[in-house]
User: Fold these one by one.
Assistant:
Number 1:
Amino acid sequence: MPNLTSSPLFFFFLQIVSFSILRIHAGKDDYHCPTTRCSDYGPEIRFPFRLEHKSAPNCGYPHPAFQLSCDGGSENITTTTLIHIWPSSPALVVERIIYKEAKIQLFIPDGCFEALLFNRSLSHSPFRFFRSTNATVINCSMNKFDNIDPKDLCSTFGSTYLREFSDNYFVDDMPLSCHSVKTIEIDIGDDWIFGASRARANLRWELPLCGHCDGSGRSCYTKNMTTRTMGCHPGINRKLIITGVTLGLFVVVIGIFIIGVKAYQSLKCSKLDREYQLKVEKFLEDYESLKPTRYTFHEIKRMTNSFRTKLGEGGYGSVFKGELPNGVLVAVKLLNGFNSFADGDEFINEVGTIGRIHHVNVVRLLGFCAENLKRALVYEFMSNESLEKFIIIRRDPASSTDYNNIQRSGAGPLFLGWKKLEEIAIGIARGIKYLHQGCDHRILHFDIKPHNILVDDNFVPKVSDFGLAKLCSKGQSIVSVTAARGTMGYIAPEVFSRNFGNVSHKSDVYSFGMLLLEMVGGRKRVDETVEVEAEVNQVYFPEWIYKQYLEEEEEGVEELEGTVTLSDDQAGDDDEGVMNNIARKLSIVGLWCIQWYPVDRPSMHGVVQMLEGSGEGLTVPPSPFNSSANSNPQESAPRRPHFSHLSVINE
């Protein structure tokens, strides 16, 4: 795990924290009571005023008259700042606020400020006129004065007029048609002209006084809303600013130094980094390529050239040769539309199991098609087809039970040699071992046989056809199987009857053992050319070979080698002793694998170890057969086990 304190990001974070702390302590008042405005051109609003819905209650003096609001804000109307100088007064427009003079300039649109004071005075408000004088409101029945020039108060007053008293004029001098109504206080600002518009007024506030805070560069706030006690926010601490700036610069220098060191190390290790990156990229490409691709039926038809080249046919359907757009050859298994494989769990098994694994000895599923009832599986192409092609023999009808006279078919390149057969056997064992132990889940194949072992150009075997496979956890050694599955002659006894034990990964071991013995004996387990009645009289090769070892092990090996006769050119450079040893090893391992009870069979891990060894320490296992035999195995050959009459479970 990398050291966090050595990371430049750590120092950058420390710098941010330092400046944040500095900002909080140095400008605490800005965070608690920031200044606000209703518009860019509106007056600045701060203590003792507060803006409704934007400022905290303690940011203004606790009196309704000091609470301002905003109005307007549409595209054609500028947002204005409004104030109510007493609770029941109409909203007045705030044009200007001069905090140093405690002065506020108000405007009443289409009105007259003195008209507001006709029935109410400023004594009900915390505001007073900045400069004022007294004026008398008089009411006259006619608009006629002798040597008197009264000025209209407001148009709303009708016949009521306003007159300012002076030393040379008294109320007694008013015409008889006039009488005094009321004396009111009026504003006389610096720009006030008697008789001019009364739509504006200059007021001052008397409480609270906050000049001592403003004078020291600080701002006021309400410390106690009940007692209306005021206080000053702390001012800027210059020492703290200097400390914060110094700390920030120090952190920046350290950060630059660390970044430089890291950059140097990065350049120094760039070659290793590039190699690691290439390794990661290759892994990602391989991982992406492992996932099977889902094709449409149209794409399947196009890659097989409308199913022109057929490679084979079986109960599940037909296999056609195809080619991907990138030129890779594939084998397309087109499933029968109403076959149980096509519309049952087997199709899901095939895609779900082989689609998630990748091993050199397991056939690779490149893609699949599931379009209505049209289903297909796309595999890598195996030019040499299946192992069955290389171990089929033909019997001499004149001596059907004499294995010394059995010859391999002369059609095609069927003669591989014992060393190659050994390599193929080891490859198959490794593939099955991977299925049992190398995946996230244990995969039981349940149909190991020569037909399901494909061979590529280099004669590398690959386990295929996972239609009958079953998944279970790695720790699970016993699985539940509702019905017998597999192919006749390769099915373990416990799959037929639980009296022999539980179905487990040892069932695949049994099938592999039968496959090994078939590779050695060179004959199929079931000869379909013989009638069923006559089949019980056929010699059961595994039991026959076992009795050869019991009678005379060394002599049995020599006889065993004689069961497969190779011409000189077919045998190649294989040494006779080496061939005998390979044949003996494959036979004994096969006999261990077909033990009657699962507990007596080795695991595939043990099988691989035995096959990879020299075979010198292998001993003949106990008899895996129940049938009795004559002392002379060639005169009276043993019969097949009793389960041979059961029906074949097709794939």
Number 2:
Amino acid sequence: MDRPSQSYLTYALADSFQAQLITAACKGEAFDTETGLPDSIHREAQTITWFEHASDYMDNKWSKIAANSRRSTLEGMIAVTCALVRETRGAPGTEQLRDALRWAFLPSRKDVDQPEPVATTLR
């Protein structure tokens, strides 16, 4: 089985990666059979954000569900996403965030440039 190889700019970078592999093996960590990487490194490479997951979910479900279900699913995704956002100084307000998410989660708008307020809110 061919495994993807990876090259490094310096010996130190390659040595550091090798040390990560040895550490994972010494800890008894499982290795992914496809990539040959320890699970901790493999998971990092496969991680997607909640926003990406929610957007993909909406894209996949949208055409398969009825109009009322679309509305309910959209509102549910907006509510969950707002609950997951940390409130920090300078963060957008709840209504501004809800409006931006409503715009972003609609599959029909995927190929359209986001309005500046939406893009700013979602950064």
